[in-house]
Design a protein that fits this description.
This protein is 34% helix and 19% strand. It is an alpha/beta fold and 347 residues long. A hairpin with a 4-residue loop joins strand 2 and strand 3. Bound molecules: phosphoenolpyruvate and manganese (II) ion (MN). The site of manganese (II) ion has 5 residues, from loops.
Amino acid sequence: MIVVMKKGASEEQIEHMVDRIEGMGLKAHVLYGTERTVIAAIGEKREAHRLSLESGAGVAEVVPILAPYKVASREVKPEPTVVRAGSLTVGNGHVGVIAGPCSVENEQQILACAEAVKQAGASALRGGAFKPRTSPYSFQGLKHEGLELLATARDATGLSIVTEVLATDDVELVARYADVLQIGARNMQNYRLLEAVGKSGVPVLLKRGPCATMDELLLAAEYVLDGGNPNVMLCERGIRTFESHTRFTLPLATVPYLHSKTHLPVVVDPSHGTGHTYLVPDMAAASIAAGADGLILEVHPEPESALSDGYQSLDFPQFDEMMTKCRRVADALDRQLGSLEQVVGSR
Ligand code: PEP
Ligand code: MN
């Protein structure tokens, strides 16, 4: 249920309603909007609860939340959520650009990447230290050493770090280094991991599982939100279909669809979504045209020799050119692309 408070309801009245909701054995999430405050009361539905809450002082109305996801729903919070993590701003007109290699390989590689993507106007650096690989014989990432190298790159450039956490046991370690915790597609429904990143309080980039529906993605986000972490970005990274001309099929209708259902920002990953370097720039531009709040892209100084996903990575000139193209689309739609600092790229 949503308890909609009257305009100008006092803090005392809001606190009183939170106590009452919790007293009924329900969980209360207070959302302060620009117009009015609403309290989402989450738990088992009971008509008696609804009627009883309606009589509270300062309450305008109590309405059921129809969507299966609650805190993620636009019914609860109509205004878009903006996620901020250091140099990265995503949402409500800011198109954050997260760029960097699939995997952190060595100091020279990650520093070169960080400097190049920053120069082109990216807002954050990506790089996997813990890698989820299909084969156990493939490069698994530099793990703790990779996190140290990412921290070195952040110190050198000021770019925030986005990196994947693969297992619940690693959340504490990765959260010590990361500005954003990436939950990979393979882990989208790892509920214990979602609860752990919910508790960490560190902003989360939640990738869609290649076979997951929109409701499943939103319910996965709900686990993180319910854990008390409001900073969740959803990421479309392509799904499995019968089609084989691309690594995955990248459905961009996801972006306006999610915007109609949730206040959470939506990021698109055209690198994994296509699996081919030559398709990435156009799909990045198309993502912005579809309303994406952010992009995550794989960039490598020498894609040919990358230890993972080189075939879908952009080199530095290609990334720079892609940014120029995307900036033109963002400008046309009155949105700000990439770094909020004075743009240093090749414009
Ligand atoms: C990645 O970002 O490198 C990655 C492994 O992505 P996904 O989880 O979407 O496959
Ligand atoms: Mn990758």
